């Protein structure tokens, strides 16, 4: 270190290394860079102590603060739930009949219902709630079990043909063809008669008689159905299982029956009310009938 | 650094010239007084504008100029701009740009010399220097003096004043973005949003550093505008000129008395350099450093008066007139200097954009309807064969008062509609919607058409039910199962 040689043009010391006449100059790192480097080292020590850092066999070291990304997520979720709590409480406390009176709450319920629908309902009813063959379209005005808020809520809570729920909505149409109640010819005749309600085929007198004997008790003599039994309207434009002759014959001969889970077992009452409000808001929702007491009582007797 | 010989080091590797600190001398004169006036007016506008009140009724803020970022509104006296009308702001910015061209073509770098915030605040801070440390010579002496206790005390006092001005400047800025009296109260009770404090801090520091320390370096090294202006100036642009044909060769009054006829008017007193806020020597000719503040004209005129020579050795002259003057011609008349094709063209473009904006402002509609059809499902078949389509309509009420609007179906024979807040028993060809003041209202409407309707286009027309009867319409598509 004694004999410092200085590079004349730059005034910098030589380190003393030389390769093929090229010598290395001693240009140390800038002081600020070095201090920044030391600062990051100190920061890293603190970080390793406070946060998960060293990978071990099954998991990393936990760190003094005990922070985990999962824990942070849980915290954020519970914060979001705490924010939603007043709304959920208000919904739980408000009977669904009174929901339309509180426009702001109704609006919140529809928005919440839209989100819940995308999680729980789209698998069968579709993202736009337009359904598929065998899965009802919830946008239209055709309701098998009733389309006002209480009726929709009832369907949501107890489901349709949900095994194990004594108050689930249940209807069972006999398999007229499969069980030999009607022969093929008769199935076709009654099918044509049914299609004649909506002008899709010409009915015969024989078909009319078969209908009156076998079908009218549930579907009504004019084919307009009966909600108490969940019997579809056969005189309208909406056909859950199709309006072709073949599809109608098949449904008479060996009817399919849809099943909807009883969501009351899985979802809290507030979420169910939100879903009911959303489905009602899709455009086909029905108003409460002014003299709502009597029909409601009848429904209770049925169930 | 490790270099044993800094000067050698500099000469070989140094890229930067060390800054020579500028200590401008006090001067009085017509241009200085004009600068005082401009400073007073611009600072008053900057600090005062947010405190002007403007009554807009109960539904809108009463601050005359307010950039309400939270609610996405821009208020300027009786003008209110929504985000979708941002082209008005763009137009104003274009006008500001062309305005700079216009000013430059008529009076050169007047923006730099008088109104640029960097110039105004630098000027203000230089007055603080003068107030605390005295004039040029005292300041230079103090600068060179060792750091004694009294110098430290003086510096701390001066920088405190800098900081107060800087804080005031940063603090005034945020007043444009919220209700000023409320924000002041929130600011001091620590209830203001975090971004307010951050903005004040950043702008305090930029003012403190740019105005207190960097000063003319901002103009010379950082600002693009002087470079653009170099390209904008021509032989007809007014600029501060040292008339070297009259001043050279320089010589003191005594020398000139001894040798009459051998010396020019410049007595080489250096006053023009001493007063220059950017430290430029105008006698070297025009330069990017010269912001044409004309303080050297004041200084030189005073000296010329003292030595009994005509004023205007340094003066506002165009290059063309300079050449004419050398040949002994008169200056072109002032109106000709200002009313030349270039400035007239700029003025026409500038005022054209301004008039266009005013026209657009005056005729714009304060009611707007847009809409989109629900895509999933595209249509709904009803049990009686009728077809329903759903639409999400957005109605924009740009008046700051509630309004009732009538939406009517145009086209689509036999159809009727209702909204989500109505019962479908009340479906009709036209429905009324209440709009909240100064807001966009989203309305879902259900349109029902008779069975057998073909897919077709139709319109939803909106008319406000007030004396203005403003209207707007949106074109929509009705989709049905009959082929679409």
End-to-end distance of chain B: 79 Å
- In CATH, the topology of the largest domain in chain A is named Cytochrome Bc1 Complex, Chain D, domain 2
Query: If interface size is counted as residues with C-beta under 8 Å from the partner's C-beta, which chains form the largest one?
Result: A-B, 28 and 27 residues
**Topology, number of strands of chain A:** 3
Number of helices of chain B: 18
Query: Biggest β-sheet of chain A: count, sense, barrel?
Result: 3 strands, antiparallel
Helix/strand/pairing category of chain A: mainly alpha
**What is the CATH architecture assignment of the largest domain in chain A?**
Orthogonal Bundle
Please tell me about this protein's structure.
The complex is a heterodimer of chains A (303) and B (484). Chain A is mainly α and 303 residues long. Chain A has three domains: 1-67, no CATH class; 81-168 and 259-302, Cytochrome Bc1 Complex, Chain D, domain 2; 184-253, Orthogonal Bundle (Cytochrome Bc1 Complex, Chain D, domain 2). Chain A is built from eleven helices and three strands; from the N terminus they run βββααααααααααα. Chain A has helices at residues 31-50, 69-93, 103-120, 122-125, 149-158, 184-196, 205-214, 216-219, 245-253, 269-281, 293-302, and strands at 6-7, 12-19, 22-25. Chain A has a three-stranded antiparallel β-sheet, with no helix packed on it. In chain A, strand 1 (6-7) and strand 2 form a beta hairpin. Chain A is elongated, with a radius of gyration of 36 Å. Chain A starts with 5 loop residues before the first strand and ends with a helix. Residues 291-303 of chain A have low confidence and may be disordered. Chain B has helices at 6-13, 30-48, 87-107, 110-115, 117-133, 136-144, 149-174, 180-188, 194-214, 216-222, 225-232, 244-247, 253-258, 271-275, 295-306, 319-326, 334-338, 341-363, and strands at residues 65-68, 73-76, 79-81, 238-242, 314-318, 367-373, 380-381, 387-397, 403-410, 416-419, 430-435, 439-449, 456-464, 471-478. Chain B contains 18 helices and 14 strands. The termini of chain B are far apart. Chain B is α+β, with helices and mostly antiparallel strands and 484 residues long. In chain B, helix 7 packs across helix 9 (194-214). In chain B, the strands form four sheets. In chain B, strands 6, 7, 8, 10 and 12 form a five-stranded antiparallel β-sheet that branches. A four-stranded antiparallel β-sheet of chain B has the order 11-9-13-14, with no helix packed on it. Chain B has three domains: 16-225, no CATH class; 234-332, no CATH class; 367-478, Immunoglobulins (Immunoglobulin-like), CATH 2.60.40.10. In chain B, a hairpin with a 5-residue loop joins strand 7 and strand 8 (387-397). Chain B is elongated and about 115 Å long. Chains A and B meet through loops of A and helix 1 and strand 7 of B.
